[in-house]
Amino acid sequence: MTSTATHCPYCALQCAMSLDGRRVRPREFPTNRGGLCQKGWTSAEVLTAAGRLTTPLVRRDGVLRPASWDDALDVVATRLAGLRAEHGPDSVAVFGGGGLTNEKAYQLGKFARVALGSAQIDYNGRFCMSSAAAAGTRAFGLDRGMPFPVTDLDDSGAVLLAGSNPAETMPPFVQHLRGAELIVVDPRRSATAEQATLHLQPAPGTDLALALGLLHTAVAEGLIDEKYLAERTTGFEETWLVAAAWWPERVERVTGVSAADQLAAVRILAAADTAHVLTGRGAEQHASGTDTTSAWINFALALGLPGTPGSGFGCLTGQGNGQGGREHGQKADQLPGYRKIDDPAAREHVAGVWGVDPASLPGPGRSAYELLDALGEPAGPRALLVFGSNLLVSAPRSNHVAQRLAALDLLVVADVVLSETAQAADVVFPVTQWAEESGTTTSLEGRVLLRERALPAPDGVRSDLDLLHGLAVRLGQPAERFPVEPEVVFDELRRASAGGPADYSGVTYSRLRDGEALHWPVPAPGHPGTPRLFLDRFAHPDGLARLVPVDHRGPAEPQDADFPLHATTGRLLQHYQSGAQTRRVRELVEAAPEAHVEVHPDTATRAGLADGALAAVVSRRGRTVARVRCVPSMRLDVVFLPFHFPGEGRANLLTNPALDPTSRMPEFKVCAVRLEQP
Ligand SMILES: Nc1nc2c(c(=O)[nH]1)N[C@H]1C(S)=C(S)[C@@H](COP(=O)(O)OP(=O)(O)OC[C@H]3O[C@@H](n4cnc5c(=O)[nH]c(N)nc54)[C@H](O)[C@@H]3O)O[C@H]1N2
Ligand SMILES: Nc1nc2c(c(=O)[nH]1)N[C@H]1C(S)=C(S)[C@@H](COP(=O)(O)OP(=O)(O)OC[C@H]3O[C@@H](n4cnc5c(=O)[nH]c(N)nc54)[C@H](O)[C@@H]3O)O[C@H]1N2
Ligand code: SF4
Ligand SMILES: [Mo]
User: Which ligand is nearest the CA of 166, by number?
Assistant: First the structure.
């Protein structure tokens, strides 16, 4: 049996594995060093899982019925053409995903702008990394989540993790933290916090105050790097004007983190020869997520970490292609190569590669939640095509999103399984999974990886690229404009990205096959790639990093008498995202079968709930039913729910779609709730 070297289909660590037939074996690689988590080990089971789609489905008389590819493509193309003719090109919208390969993300953006002529495309990365990306761009002039290789962390003296729980979300990553003093900032005593030297346990949504407080303490203790600030940054004075008002006792009052622990954290980081500050979704998924990430960056800059050999600041990218997926044009405001869609030079370049008039490219469209919110409204889209997202489980304010999807004239979903969103669709296309197709992803360290096809696709299943080709041709596009071969698409992506911030022009499939470690930018075929950014200069024109004066705002929905607790949401080891894939793997379901809510025992008792009983968690937007798990280390004022479960166990029935003004990220990580008997 042949063995094919590939990478895990799930998270951004992109652990290396081999597939011998459908048997997964871990593979030695710098990021995972032969390790895999339970999801990676069992990932091949999804290839043959119950519910695997192998035929297109078209809704007739209210029921999804099998159809041929040609019939399904004809139905969709005819209806899209009709909607466009009657209501204009923006009546058709597209929703993509950060799990899609670079080739698919690129082709999806091109399909929306060229074949549909629609501005209305965005993707689930808006719900994931958008605050991190906005803050990174603002500070450094360029957003590559981790501007250094993961293995740099092996030699770090101290690491502060703000709102990240890699012990569950990227288990093999944790081995890179073993040599460092670890400070974990998390309202929960997470599995990662259990391993920390110091656990700071702020109330959800108060990281911004905490980061300001740590900056304050660093200044007060004389522990900032003044030479670095003078030579490599601007904006410290304005930033200090805000941080000066965040003295330790005030920070303690707002966050719940003691002044002594604030001091201890600053001292650990300042005493280390090399140190890193890393953020995860806990800090970023807030209506103030961009400013909160900026506050963590400001603190890292004050300590002189970013762009210093052996030290650094990074945001831990989440989805398998969370980095590449945000660079090649499926985001509302972007063109390939991380170009801006409103930049005339970028439009000219990309239109040249696509062979269209730059003036024909639509401008920026709505952000993900705003797009969903507008579906079926008089001025909003009437059709939605979904690729790689299970919105009915993962988008905020689920009840409302379900209503908006139901108001559409046409919902089309391409998926590998009949996800909750696919079940609600008018047309469903069965597509290939990672092992059945080739394509590239860009991992959390900005390294481009090739996942080669290892298995034949099941009968009836085609790739997303094939589907886009079929639709584009039916919409009148020349066939050669939408190729189906991943390598051909990648070669076009290289040209489209050339000269852009995320320049892939020097990356080729053959270099990747040879095992070259190519971190972007790779601006020429002989270029060795850029594992470490910012060592000499940051990417702003003056080469300096920016500290940004930001102030604490707190959660968009404060606690009150009716909703006295804060709910936060996140992940469990066993399930991936909406659970569409992992809820089909028996071993994972047995370990984590249903929705639960983590509660302090006293909080449970006050609500009349016992450990193991079902509880209703109620917010202004909805009601979730979940099993009570009493956890003595929880804060009394916080409950935690994983968001992987469907139906009435959906955490997103509760969540607040208050949006960050810059990134348009919804506030997944904090909303006001109460506990009730179910
Ligand atoms: N097992 C598993 N692994 C995954 C995924 C998965 O679904 N399952 N998804 C992948 C993806 S797409 C992503 S984005 C990453 C996410 O990876 P992480 O960011 O590690 O995951 P989360 O569990 O969403 O959030 C991390 C922690 O933030 C804490 N938190 C909640 N509110 C706050 C707050 O206000 N401040 C702070 N400081 N912390 C807070 C939560 O308690 C939680 O422990 O994981 C990737 N890996
Ligand atoms: N409450 C709460 N909600 C959250 C979060 C949170 O922390 N709390 N986190 C947010 C974050 S960070 C993220 S990334 C999102 C993720 O949430 P979703 O966007 O729902 O992501 P997945 O569950 O990975 O959905 C991917 C879907 O695409 C399918 N799929 C997999 N590969 C392919 C492919 O190659 N092509 C096609 N067409 N389909 C494919 C899968 O079967 C699955 O149905 O959830 C967000 N929602
Ligand atoms: S850590 Fe991420 S990439 Fe590695 S095996 Fe687990 S899910 Fe896959
Ligand atoms: Mo994510």
Answer: 1
Structure tokens at 303: 């300590």
Question: Could you name the CATH architecture of 57-127+321-484?
Answer: 3-Layer(aba) Sandwich (3.40)
138-316 belongs to CATH 3.40.50.2300: no
The pLDDT assigned to 144 comes to: 98
- Probe residue for ligand 1, chosen from 131, 281, 578 as the CB with the greatest number of ligand atoms within 8 Å: 281
- Measure 17 CA to ligand 3 centroid, in angstroms: 10
For a ligand 3 pocket test, name from 6, 15, 573 the mutation site with the most ligand atoms within 8 angstroms of its C-beta.
15
Cα distance between residue 507 and residue 526, in whole Å: 9
Burial class (CB in 10 A: 0-12, 13-18, 19+), 657: buried
Please check whether the domain covering 565-676 is classified as CATH 2.40.40.20: yes
pLDDT, average across residues 153-171: 98
H or E, element range at 675: strand 671-676
Q: How many CB atoms lie within 10 A of CB 558?
A: 11
pTM of the model: 0.98
Residues in contact with ligand 2 by the CB-under-6-Å rule are: 97-100, 124, 127-128, 281, 285, 318-319, 387-390, 393-394, 414-417, 419, 431, 464, 569-570, 576-578, 580-581, 643, 651-652, 655, 668
The C-alpha atoms of residue 51 and residue 420 are separated, in whole angstroms, by 11
Longest Cα–Cα distance of the chain, Å, equals 72
For residue range 392-410, list pLDDT tens digits in order.
Answer: 999 999 999 999 999 999 9
Q: Which ligand minimizes its atom distance to the CA of 164?
A: 1
Buried b (16+ CB within 10 A) or exposed e, 337-349: bbbebeeeebbeb
